[in-house]
Design goal:
disordered C terminus; 27 strands; globular; alpha/beta; disordered N terminus; 7-stranded mixed β-sheet; single chain
Length: 1478
Amino acid sequence: MAEWYTHLAVALLAGVWLYWVGLGLARRDSSHPYPNNQRAGLEFTTPHTQTAPAGSQGDTSHSTQSDSSQQAVNTNPRSRKGKRYQLLDASQSLESSKPDKNTESGIHPVGTSEPQSNEPTSSNPRPKCFRISGVPSTWDENDLFNALHAIVPSLTRQDFRPTLYPACCRSTQTALVNLDPCTKHLQQQNHLAVSESPSKTYLQIDSDFYNLTPLNVPMGEVVADVIAVTGLAGHAYGSWRSRKTDQMWLKDLLPQDIHNIRIMSYGYDSSLVGDRKAENRLLDYQRFFVQEIENSRSSDKKYRPIIFIGHSLGGILILQALIEARRNPSHKHILDSTHSIVFFGTPHQGMRTRDLEEMVDEESDSYETSKHNLLRQLRQGSEFLENQKEELSYIWEKYKPKIISFYETVQTPTVKMSNSGTYERDGKESEMVSRFSAQLYIPTEQRIPVEENHTNMVKFASAENRTYQTVARYLKEWVESIGESCATKKIENFRKSQEYIDCRKSLKPSDHKSYRDEVWLRRHENTCTWVLEDPRYRKWAQKDGQTILWISGGPGCGKSVLSSFLTKEITHGKTNQQCMAYFFCDDKDERLRTAHAILVDVLTQLLDQIPDFMMHFLAEPDYTTNEEKTSWSFGMLWRVFERIINDTRGRQLYILIDALDECEEGSCTNLLKQLQHLLSEATTTTRPIKIILTSRPHIPVTSNLSDVIEMPLAAKNLKSDITAFVQAEVQKQPQFAGSLGEEVQEALIHGSNGMFLWVSLILEDLKKSTNTTPRAIRKALKTLPSDLSGVYMNILRKIRTEDQITAQSILQWVVWAIRPLTLQELRIAIAILPEHTSMSSMWDDMHADLTQVLRVIFGPMLRIEDNNTVHLVHQSVKDFLSNMNTPIESDLSDYMRPAFDLSSIESNLQLAKSCLTYLCFDECEDGPTNHQYREQDGFDQDISVRQKNLPFLHYSATHWPEHTRKAELSGEYQVLYHLFRKLAESLSKMNLAYQIFTFSCGERYQKTLPLQIASSLGLVVFTEQLLDYGTDINAQGGRYGNALQAAAAEGHVAIVLLLSAHADIQINKRIVTAIAQTTSKGKEVMQVLLSARDGDASLCPSDIEITEPIVTAAAANFQKGHEVMEMLLSARPDINITEPTVTAAAKNWECGKELMEMLLSARPDLEITEPIVTAAAANWSCSKELMEILFTARPDLEITEPIVTAAAANWRCGKELLEMLFSARPDIEITEPIVTAVARNDSGKQMMEALLSARPDIEITEPIVTAAARNHSGKQVMEALLSAHPDIEITKPIVTAAAGNLGCGNELMEMLLSARPDIDITEPIVTAAAANISKGKEVMEMLLSARPDIEITERIITATARNSSGKRVMEMLLSARPDIDITEPIVTAAAGNSSGKQVIEMLLAAHPDIEITEPIVTAAAGNSSGKQVIEMLLSAHPDIEITEPIVTAAAGNSSGKQVIEMLLSCPYPDIEIHRAHI
C-alpha cells in the first residue's frame, strides 16, 4: 500500500509541475481513475430507447457483456411507473469488488462550494467530477439514480445530486456528478448492463472529458455557442475549476449571468508524460476539434454564432481550426460563424520549451515522438507559428472577429525533481507566456492583464473575481448584440410574409417615425435630460411603479420635444425583452387625431418589433373572415391590444401618447375609459406595461384614469433647459456680442415663462431684423410681447397690404385643411379661381417659388417639414387665428381685420369652392379606375396616371364633403350646390371623386348616384335641391340601396327627416332595419320615423310594423343600440321581444349591459333561455355584468353545458365567470367540451389549473389536448395538463396541431417530444410544420433533430413551397435531404405563392435541371406577385412556351397587367390574345 501511495504522489507532483510551467503537464484536477485512461461503460435497457453506441461522448471499445444469469436488484418505490432495472452483467458486483488502491469511497454533489485541498488525500479527498454520457432524454435525476442504484445499492439520494444537460452532439443528456477520487463504486466494471426489456441504453462514465462536454441548460432561444478549449495536457473540466471553492465558472457562474447561450468545454488527450492512447500531432488535434464542432451543430444551426474561449495551447487549437475552416469549403461555415474569441495566455509568438523537451526526452528515452514535434512547433520563432500568423492575417482582415487577449502578470513557479525522484513545486519562478507572446497586435484586439499566474488565470473562485466580471461583461455585450442581430433578421424575414404585408396594409399606419424625428430635430442639445432624474419619472419607471405618468403643460413649453426625447431614451435603453410604441397627436391632421389612429400606430409598432404578436391579429375573427381584409374597427383593434397586453411573455411594453389634447374629444374620452377598464382589472398588476400621456392641463385625464402619477411642467422645471438654449443661440449671433448678448439672454430667459416657443420666435425675429444696431436691439427688448399671441400679432402687422389676399388664402388652407398640404398642393390650392376649368387655365395664377413667399410673408409662423408639407409652427397659432374676432390685448387695425378673418365657416366655404372647382376640371373626365377596393393590386399605378396631371386630386376628392358640411351656415352656400350640380352632370367626374373618397374611408366602391352621395354625406341643401330638381327619390343602386337608406346608414337625421316627409318616399322594413343598425345618431334617426311631427302621424305610417329583425338589429347596434331600443320601446310599447332580440343584446359588447337591463325592465316575465345566457357568457366586454343581471333577475337560472363552455372560452374574463358559475352551482358537471374550451382559451392557464385542482378526476381526452396544442398561447395550458396527468396519451392529431401552431408551436413540440420521446412522427405532422408560417422553421428543426430519418415526402415539400414564410424551412430541408426529388406540384406551389420568389430561387439553384411546365408558369401568372417569378423562370428557361392558359391566368390576375406587359414585350410572336383573355 505504501508503495502505491509513493507512485501516486510522484505522478501527481509531476503533473502539477508540468501544468504550472504553462501547459498543465500531466496534472488533472479531475485525473483518470482508470488504468490507461479507460472509461467505464454502463449499459441499460429501457422500453423506449434503441441500442446505440455512445458515439463521440465516450469510448466504447472496452464494452463487454457477460452471459451470466440476470439478477434483479432494484425495488425502489420511487422509480418511474413501469421501469424495472436488472443487472445483466452480474459476474462482478461493484459493491463486493475489491477496492482499487487508486480510490476511496464517497460521492459528492456537483458544484459543492466547500474549500477542498488541491490534491486528494485519505483525510481530505477532493471531489472528482465524472461525466455520464448517453442518458436518455426522458430520464430525470431519479431515473439516473435508480439505474446506478441497481449497481450500487449503497448509493443514497442524499449524496447523489447530478446535473443533467442536453448533450452536445446527440438527442440524449449528459450528467455531471462529483465523486471522491478514491471511490470504489465505479472501478472494476467497464460495461455493466441493466435491463427491463429487450432494448438497451448505453451509458458512458468517464473523467477524461475528451471531446465536447455540455455545461448548461440554455434558457429561451439559443443565440450563440460558447466553446472553451483547454491547453496542452489540460483538463476540459479541471482547468477551469477553482482550487479554493470548487466552482467551475463555465458551469456554475456564466449560465447565471447569460441565459440564452449553449456552453461547452472541449478536451483532448495531449499529455506530455505517461502513456498516451495515440501519437497525435497538432494537425490531428485540429481535425478532431473541427469534426467535433461539426457534430455538435445540426445543418440548420451551422451558422449559429460561436464565441471561442482558449487557454494557453487551446487558443492555438482554435486558430488552427479557423485556418482549416478557411481551407476546406465544407467547414467554412465555422469561420463564417466565429463571432469572437477570448484568449487566456495563448503563446501566439511561442514560448520557452527547452525544459519541457528535456523532460519528454527522459520519458521517451530520447527517441523521437509526436510530443517532441508538438513542442518544437511551440518554440519561439518556430516556422509553424510564423506560417500561422501569415494565414491568420487574411482572416483578421476579412472577418474581423472581436478578440480579447488576457495575459498573466504573475510568474509561475516551476517544478524540479527531488532526490527521492518526485517532482516538487519549489523551482524558479518564470514567465510562462510573455506579454509579447500573448498578444496578436491586430486592430480588433482588446488587451487585458490578469493578476494571476499562467495556471490560475482561468480559475475564478466566485462571480466577484475581477477577471471573471470582465469576461462576463464582454460576453454579455456580444450575446446581446448577436441576439439583436438575430431578432432583426427574424423581423426582416417576417416582414416579407404575405400575412404581415396584408395585415399592415389593412392597418394603414401613419409615418410615425418620421413625425417623431421631425419633433426630435427641434430639441436643443443637452436639454430634457432633467426628466430622467425627476422623482416622479423615476417612481413611474420602477418595475413595480404605477402604470401611467401624465405630463401636462401649457402651449409652447416643449411637451412634444420632451416626448420625442423620452421615446429615444427608452428605445435606446431597451433590450430584446422590451418594446416601445408611441403616437404624436396632431389636431391639424385628420390622420393623427383619433383614438383609432392611436391604436393603429401603437399596434403596428408592436407588431414590427415582435413578429409573434401576429397571431393576435389572426385571432380576430372579424379580420380573418373578411376576405378583403381592408379595415379595422376600434373594437377589433382594442381586442387585439388586450390580447397583446395579456401575452407579453415577460416583455416590458412602453407606450407614449403625446398631445392628447389634440385628439378628438369623444375619441379621447373613449380611449381613456377603455384604458381605465383594462388597467382596473385584477390581473393588470402582472402585466408589464408602462404608459406616458402628455397634454395641456385641461384634459380630464385623472377623472377618467385612476392611480396616475401627475407631472405638471412648471417654469422652474424648464428654466435650465431654456437657459442652455438661449445661451447657445445667442452666442451663435455676431450682432449679440459682449454685454449686449448678456442683455438679450437675460430678457429672453426672464420673459419666457417656461415657453420654448416664445423664446424661439423672439430670437428669430431679432435675427431677421433689418436694424441690428445695439440701440435698436435694446429698444426691441424693452417692447417684447408678453405671450405667444403678442408674437403672432407682430408677425401679422408686418404683412404688406399687397400680400394680404395671398396671406389670407395661405392661412385659410394651413389652418383649416383636414391634413397638412404639400408645397405642390398648397401652390395649386391658393391659385384656384372660379373661372378655371383645367390645369392649363390656372398656370398664370400660380406662384413660381412658394417657399420664398411663405418665408417673406410669415417668417417663423409657418414651417416646411422634410416631407415638404406646410405646418403652423405650433397648435397655439391655430388657437390664436381661430379667435381673431374675440377681444384681444392689441387689436389689428380695421383695414387689416377682414384680411385675417379666418372663421371656420367662411374659410371652409372657400376651401370647398376650390375643391369642387378642381374636381370639375377637364382632366377628371377619365373617371374612376376599375377597382372596388383600395388594396387591389394595380390601383396605385392606375390612379397615379390621373394624379400625375392632377396633383390636388386626392385632397379635393377626399375632403370636399367635410369642408362643405362645415360651410353649411354660410350665406354663400348656394354656390357650392351649383358646383356640385356641375360635377354631377358628369358621372365620370363624380364617381372618380367618390371612388377616391370611398377608398379613403376604407370602404368598398360602387358606382353611386348623386342623390345617394349627397344623402350619405349629410349634405341637406344638396339633397333638398336635387329633389326639387326632380331626382328620383326611390332610385335603387350603389352602396346603400336608395337615398333614405344612405342617410339612415350614416346617421344623418335631418336628411332622414327630409326624405321621410317627401310624398313619393317608400318606407319599408328594410329601411327601418337599416336605421336600427346605424351606429351614428341611431336614436335620432329612429325618432324621426316613430314620432309625429306637428301632430301629423302620417310621418310614420301606421302600417309600418316594427318586426323582430328591426328590434334585433337595434339590439345588435354596438354603439347606439340602447338609445334606439329605448326609442322603440317608447314608441311601440307592445313590441314583441323575442329570443333572437335578447340574444343579440347579450352579444352586444359595447352596450349589452344597458340593453339587458332595459329589456328585463320592460318585460319582467321575459323567458331567459339557454342561447341568451350562452351569449352573455361569451361576451368578451361585459359578460360579468350581464351574468350578474341575469342571476339577479332569475336566481333559479339553469346553468347548462353550453353556458359553462361559453364562459370557459371567454378570453378576457373566463376565470371570473367560472368562479361565479361554480359558486352559484357547485354541482356543475365538468364535461369534455368545457375543458376543451378552456384549453382553447388564450388565457386558459389559470382556468385549467383551477379546474384540475377542483376536479382532479377530470378525464383529459384527445380533443382537449388537441385544443391546447392548437391554442396560440397554449404552452402553459399544455404544461398544466401534462403536470396533472403525466400519463396523457399524446396522439398524432395532438402532435399535428402543435406542429401547426403559429404562436408557440416550437415550445409545444419541445414539450411533447420531451414528455414522449417515442412519438411517431408521421407525414401529416411534418406537413403541418412545413405549412406553419410563423414557427415552421423551429418546429421542423426539432423534428429533424429528434428523428433524423424522417421521410421527407412530396406532400411535405409542397406544403413548404406553399408557405408564405417557407424559405427558411425549404433551406433546411434541402440541406438535410439534398437528394429530394423536386416535382412539378412542388414548383407549382412555389410559383403560386405570393412570397414564393425566394423559394423558386432556392429550388432552381439546388436543381437547375427542373423542368418548367405549363402548370408552373400558369401558377406564376396567376400570382399577385408573379411578375418577378415569371422573370426568374424566363431567365432560367428562356425556351418556355407561353400558352393560352398562361395568358388567361395573367389576364384574370388582379395584378396581371405587369405580367401581360412582360409577356407581350418578350419575343413570343405567336402569343394570341383571345376574347376569353379579356
